[in-house]
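Build the 3D complex.
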Amino acid sequence: MNGLDSLFNVILTTDFAFSVLRVTTPILFAALGALISNRAGIINIGMEGIMLVSALTGVIVSSYSQNAWVGLLGAVLAGTLIAGLLAFFTLKFKTHIILGGIAINMFASGGTVFILYLLSGDKGSSTSLPSKVLPSLELPLIKDIPVVGQILSGHHVLTYISIISVFVVYYLLNRTSLGLRIRSVGENSHAAQSVGVSVIKIQYTALLLSGFFAGLGGAYMSMGYLSLFTRDMIAGRGWIAIAAESMGRSTTAGTALTSLLFGAADALSNAFQVLKIPAELIATLPYVATVVGLVIYAVSETRKKNRKISAK
Amino acid sequence: MFKSKYFETFRTTAVILIALVIAFLIIALVSDNPVKTIGIFLFEPLNSKGHIGNVIEMAIPLMFTGLAVSLLFRANMFNLGAEGVFYFSGVVASAIAIHWSLGGFLHPVVAILAGSIVGAILSAIPGILKAKWNANELVTSLMFNNILFGIGLYLLNYQLRDAKAFANVSFKFEKTALLDKIIPGTRIHTGLIFVLALIVLAHFFLYKTKWGYELRMTGANRSFARYSGMKTAKVIILVHLLAGFIAGMGGSVEVLGMYTRFQWTALPGYGLDGALVAMLAKNNPLSVIGSALFLAYIRIGADLMARLSDVPAEMISIIQAVIILLISAEQFLKFWKNRMLLKEAREA
Amino acid sequence: METPLLEMRGITKVYPNGVVANRDVNFSLREGEIHALAGENGAGKSTLMKMIFGMEEPSEGEIYIRGEKVRLQSPQDAIDRGIGMVHQHFMLVPSFTVAENMVLGMEPRKGLGIHYAEAIRMTEETARKYNLAVNPKAKVEDLTVGMKQKVEILKALLRGAKILILDEPTAVLTPQETEELFRELQQLKEHGHTIVFISHKLKEVKAICDRITILRGGSSEGVFQTADMSEQEISRLMVGRDVVLKYDKPNVALQEPVLTVQELNVSDRQGNSLLRDVNFTVHGGQIVGIAGVEGNGQRELIEALTGGLQGVSSNGAVQVKGTEIREADILTIRNLGVAYIPEDRMSQGSAAEASISDNLISTRYRSKAMNKGFFLRGSSVMEMATRLIEDFKIRCSGPKQPIGMLSGGNMQKVVVARECSANPQLLIAEQPTRGVDVGAAQLIHQKLLELREKQSAIVLVSADLNEVLEISDCLLVMYEGQIVAYIENPSGMSEEELGLYMLGIKRQDAQQIRRALSHV
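Done.
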């Protein structure tokens, strides 16, 4: 009981709620990216790699320009560019999208170390590069509200942008012509084609957007969450994002909520250590949840089919 | 004269050449002495018995996972779970190597068999989910990689970890569990014999047996297989079991052949490399040997280059990415094939 | 003479795989008419229309709109020129609302977003203008088939279509919905629209079309005023026999019954009846042909004979040599000695990337002749493959060549060789010569007749009337899931008479049909 008490003591603090938002940010960005490309019918499993490249680019550009915002721009451009590369190969050369994603991840995990070593002479981290960090913001008015202020105020600027992004992506997908076309391409590309929508163009756009958001997530990792680049620093967040998108059944709200849930699981892994539940096992929870969700869905689909048959 | 049926061979060669040219370009950009560096990259792996040994040592796990993935791809199953299975089976074999004591050759055999069987069972799960409920085997296998890694890491940290060691590694394996070195002056171990035997077996299985035939037909066209009376769900589960067994054996053999403690704190990547090997081998078991050796060769070349010159070994992952992107690109050089076909049609 | 609204001259379409879908076809539309395009399945109707809608480009020939030569390279080109198409498989996004589907690709905007109120207004306005009531806010996945079709028509109209192509629009409709559709089409005609109505249901063609173009085997049989043509005349042109095949059919004494189908009823998931009270027997040494316009139950009948009915509601008896197979799996059925030449050689009948020999053994690698336990007998497989390649005159470089590299005719010979060479008790041949050249077709016919002499029972389902009439010992005609005629020695029968049965105009009485089920 004592352990449980102390667990609640950890969870029920404003610090914990604050840290949930902090660790959710990169997952949320990447999950929104995955959402957009999935809605266009292409599964981008290169999120991990794109985030890694962006994280490094942010560090490099900010340290050379001595401007964090320029660094952010560089990071996002790099993410979009890598996604563009993936799009070029999969849409033009018809490379298998999954193998393309694997290639991107492979390229990123070695390529970032390669570049890092060339620029800093170090293969582990970018300590020798004087990179910049994006600021945190105190929210006027809100910061003075007790509890709420402590949870919501004082976050990294990209954390706020990630929350705003949820609404932007929702608006994009559900209220704009681009969103309508993205969804039509993903759901019935023949229908889209028959009214003159260019399927290739829409898929290009969706992949670029997925790279854009993954780029924001990567930038957050090296210019917010940490203040430097370390090798393989994304540490599975890209995969968790893909899992979150899948668990969220490809809806904006579902994806955002699952990202938050997985973020909380991440934050909890520290708290759970009080209960002597190892962090390694907690870290698998998002993936277990996704497999379970996937199986439940697959079984219910199969049942639905069978029921239709037996109904007559 | 070139014929369109040689197109695939031609294309593979072209992809490899392009990748090498890119490697040279990178070296030329980065290195102070590019000619010497390229020389090291290309020829140093052949320069001594030890280096040749390194290439073969590196090729062993690549052959295991390449073979496993080839079988899956051959059955048209897009399962990338070899990665997690390879890792987890390594943990299982390590646990037996540490905690059991068995005499003579039995110890490694039991450890490897245990790893292989666990691998087969774990790999079958996405297979069964696919065969029974049509759950996407790609997504489940990718998730399984992370789950197996988490559990494996937990076992390493909580069950196998040697607190006295300087790093996050397991207790030492019992001496009896280690695989024998078979060529003096290298670390090439008996795993090489296992994997070559397995490859030959897989070749015979695939091309000379009823089950292998069912596997190939199910992969080539599942509704044709069904129409012919084959139980394709059974075939899908079978190929997952086989692939898991092979990948699991690979992980077990690798830890017992190359290490004295279990020390992977990240996924070693051999499973995904296996996908690359399978692609280069066009999913043919015998060709897995050549493509694994090629991949191992350029990796060892890059390692040696990093040691002997100023270019880091990670360059190789860029080269690998290029190879994957181009080799699976259906349209790459397609215009060339079409031209050949047209020409042949005119001549016919 | 006035310039036609749309004119196609000398259109030939050859697909990359060598299939000639259209050969030197002329087609023209007068403004404000309803023009029927009729022909059997595979006659080239859809290909011709795809070329008007920019989905395919002709290999030869020209298209004119109001006398001006045009090139239609994409659906957008066609839409821009006022052409709209309602596809047989609806081009709608199920999770979208009607209004969203309507405006997809031409969304009205307000600021950054879509102007939804405007989209709904546009939908309502178009609906009102053409008197086609739809609910703009309803989700398409919740609509009935008839409603979906209305949305499709409105979609085309909203995009300014003056020419509307409807690809077999009534195939999916109930009779009531069909009537409503016809009223709507009449209204559109009054609005000055021109309509192309693709169909092989001649009653419907007679009911609403002004003129008719008839296609057969990819070529045009001419353009006619529908009023001047009887259904019989149209059907004769659609299915007529050009070359009369003649084969020497030796008399073969009837053997024991192999296949017995009794009181077979099949219905789909919605409870619609697909097969009703089907009864017939096939004896060893007998070829029973099954004729009918496609979609009248032949598919379901074949499924019932080949293990395809699992999961569908059915009752009755289907027995092979006394063993019930209606709900058996494919392997059980094959083990009883049933062979099956499927209609689609690409998706079912073969594995394109596998070798010819691999394709030849798929139904017999389990037999002792082909394996010793777990292992295949490589040399026996090769011997058999080499023999069959010779026997069936399959043109290839050898048994190891991938089957996908063969021409359609040779590919089909591989399928036929596999199924015929195992001396089956019962062979089900579905469209065995569709899309193959004359030489291959003759060879396949010979092989069927040889099998008959070897006392196999054969069910031949074919849309090629020439084939069913000439090869079969007796013929069953299917209409709307029922057998409507049983004809012995059909080779002397006129196609006009057969056409009457196929179109449901004429049917035998129950007593006559009952003869198909002989009690031996």
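The CA atoms of residues 240 and 286 of chain A lie 7 Å apart.
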